[in-house]
Amino acid sequence: MMAFVFFGRLAFYIILMLTPLALPATSLFWEGSFVLRALILVPAEALLAWFGPKIDGAARRRGNRGTIRLSARIVLRPSQLLALILPLVFLPWTGFSRTLLGFYGAAAYAYLSSWLIFRRGFGRLLYPEPFLFAYYLQRMISFSRVSEDMASAARPFNTAAFVLMVAGFAIYAVLIYRFEYRSRRKAPDKRESIIGAAVLIGSAPALVLLVPPD
Questions:
Q1: For a tag site, which of 6, 40, 48, 66 has the least CB within 10 Å?
Q2: How far is 23 from 115, CA to CA, in rounded Å?
Q3: If you average pLDDT over residues 39-54, what whole number do you get?
Q4: DSSP 8-state secondary structure symbol assigned to residue 29
């Protein structure tokens, strides 16, 4: 069940990163460096956190190869070393820029949040993510309205983006429910379900406010 939550979260992220393909005049964003950063680096960091136990277990069976002991209490496992090194591997192809720092931050968040959620049980880190994704879509909608011609061409995209916003909240409601059910080995009680549904429904007006006026 945790795999359903992890891969559902990852799939939704990839769908969001593919949205610029449907938006007119965003071809400058859709270049090789963007693909490497958004669709390879960030998902790879999340996958390293998910498969970390298997990677570290294989290293232990080979005599702890790739393990670095920094102190008596601090030990860097092979999966953690890979997570640190991976962004540097992409540097020759993506170049160094302010935008790259943003993607490095996203990659760090992808690893740390996945590690905390799926290896330490901090499922509440999932709660703010639909708002972050809604903000990303709102930025795409705002970009599509920089001119009248572009706004007219982007109307189908804007409608689809708003639907994706609402769908994102519904998807995350399912993911959070499944996570809480699995981590506690019992379904959330009625009170928690009512609160969760109220938050989800109450977010609808906020989504409307996120969409810029015509």
A1: 40
A2: 33
A3: 91
A4: T
